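cache lookup: miss for this entity combination. No prior model stored, computing from scratch. Input as submitted by user K.M.:
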Amino acid sequence: MLLYDAARPNPRAVRMMLLEKGITVPARDVDVDGGENRRPDFVTCNPGGQVPVLVLDDGTWLAESGAIFQYLEEQFPYPPLIGRTPEQRAITRMWQRRVERRITEPLYAAFHYGPAVEMYRTRMVVLAECADGFKVLMQDGMAWLDALLAGATTVVPERFTVADIALFVALDFVSSIGWPMPSDLRHLQRWFRATAERPSARASLHPRSSQTGAHY
Ligand SMILES: N[C@@H](CCC(=O)N[C@@H](CS)C(=O)NCC(=O)O)C(=O)O
């Protein structure tokens, strides 16, 4: 396998999962700032034009972090980060989807259409006029999850899962670029601190983080 990696949050999520599972996969950094991931040779293999990509041993390009999580879980089931049983796996996917829909998708849209709009303008349709609205949706999602996290340190009750990883890397990234979590979201803040204490959280930071100060 080969991981097409980058100093970006979604690739960090894959790095964090690999660390949690104790797996090492060779990785190569893609020059995202320079648009390597948008060049024809890359897009032919990954029409989504984004990272991460896990190239499998038979040469298949697997993109979308959720699909990569799934593949890694099936290849390396222990420790389980999606679930041991069909019920656990379904519950994790339910929470993963809720976290995406309510928080991480609006968060990344607010980032792409807001602070990063000049870079993304040449790559995709950007809706700069919607950036503030997506930020409101993101904050609404955070408040929604905050209430559900009362007394909990994981998104799926009592199991650390890929839902925690995907949410943590997104919130750590936006906090580091100046969008801190509202301080009144006490349960979300506690969940964040508990997740940040996992060795995989620090170890998954890209070396470039120490130069730029952004957490990815
Ligand atoms: N749905 C994709 C999103 C991947 C994504 O947003 N990748 C970003 C980095 S975090 C990227 O490649 N950005 C550069 C670009 O779009 O040109 C996933 O979950 O992997």
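stored under new cache key. The longest strand covers residues 2-5.
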